Amino acid sequence: MTTQQPPQCIARRHLPQAAYNERQARADSLLRRLSQALEHHASAAIAKPDMWGFAGDLAAVNEKLMEVLGTLGALTDDERANHRV
Fold this sequence. Notes:
The protein is mainly alpha-helical and about 80 residues long.
């Protein structure tokens, strides 16, 4: 969690809770899109089962998701011990 002040254009228009609510709605939308993208990616991987690139894509995605979980303080003890942020 960061205590940094938002840019003036945001600070003048929004209270922190309003900004949080907007950003939470955006995060929810992005998560829905991520779920759809993962389904599409899985279908593509099934169509080309001998291609390692799809597994590499998911390794990169998983790494970024671990960073997000770390930002939110949601890593398990094992993940925290083994994850490089």
